[in-house]
Amino acid sequence: MTDFDQALIQIVNDKQSGSIAILQQLIRGISSYLIRENNAEISLSTIHDRLPLIQGGLGHFGVVSHFMKYLKINIDEITKGQKSNDLLFDVVKQYDKRWKNANAEVAAITSNFFDLQNKTILLHSNSSVITSFFSTLSARNIRISIVQTESRPENEGQYQAMKLANLGFDVKFIVDTAAAFMMDKVDMMFTGADQIHKNYFVNKIGTYSLALLCREKKIPLYVLADSRKIMDTNTKPEDLYNIQRPGKDIWNVNHENIEAVNFYFEPIPVELVTNFFTETRVLLPSEL
Q: Annotated catalytic, 194?
């Protein structure tokens, strides 16, 4: 097994990072491999052979799927002789440069849209675009209180809570099931997304119930995601039933009549969203 393969396995098994952070790890891994491997033909062949593994393990992330499509097109052109093998590193570098500031651009558009001073915001899971958004608010000295869910089963809400607390925000960290009890103290909810489709978006399990709570309490729900996550595929919401993490992560049970089912992503109807914010504009659900 090569160092590149080991890096890919580590990335595929990352259960804490959001999709942008996962993509950045993937880009760094590919770039490092291309630098280390002196033989351009071998490196091109290795990456080409790993494309199905990457797509199978990470393709449910919209940004990874976008990058993989871009990478495959360029690898195909190189294979056909339309580009030099040595250009693959530059191809990856150009992609990274193009989308490097996407989170900051989403954050800028979102923060300019609201007067958020002294608001209380509900957050779920862990998202780099959310961190970027709050970093922008911190730089503008906008004071906000945060209610952050633990985000079971991996509890990655802890990582986001710590990052936002380090930015100077007051954070109340709660178990997922306490969200309904806290909703009367919340002004709005923000979340990232892994995919956005015409009728639904995909995010960490637990987002759907929070979105329903927002509707019940008439609290606006805002989704922050760059435009790569707006998908034009024919993916169906029920396909998400096939994306599961090991059941032992929620209960390592040994009983013939019990199956621990660990769903990690779920579809949320876009009708529950007030606005979608991308790096270029603000969208209503009807404009997707």
A: yes
> Is there a contact between 201 and 195 (Cβ–Cβ < 8 Å)?
yes
270 and 201 Cβ atoms separated by less than 8 Å: yes
pLDDT value at residue 69 = 93
Question: Looking at residue 86, what is its pLDDT?
Answer: 65
- 29 and 144, same domain (yes or no): no
Among 31-45, 167-181, 220-234, 236-250, name the one with the lowest average pLDDT.
Answer: 31-45
Contact yes or no for 231/196 (Cβ under 8 A):
yes
Helix (H, G, I), strand (E, B) or coil at 267: strand
Question: Are the CB atoms for 106 and 173 separated by under 8 Å?
Answer: no
Short-list 138, 270, 158, CA closest to 211: 270
Residues 148 and 194 in one domain: yes
Total number of domains in the chain: 2
Containing domain of residue 262, as a range?
A: 102-287
Question: If we measure between CA atoms, which residue out of 198, 247, 201, 248 comes closest to residue 221?
Answer: 201
Which residue, of 99, 129, 150, is where some domain finishes?
Answer: 99
Select which of 5, 115, 187, 194 is catalytic: 194
Percent of the chain with pLDDT over 70: 96
Q: Does residue 42 register a pLDDT over 80?
A: no
Q: Is 120 helix (H, G, I), strand (E, B) or coil?
A: strand
Examine the domain organization and report whether 24 and 71 are in the same domain. yes
pLDDT beyond 90 at 135: yes
**Model confidence over 163-177: pLDDT tens digits?**
999 999 999 999 999
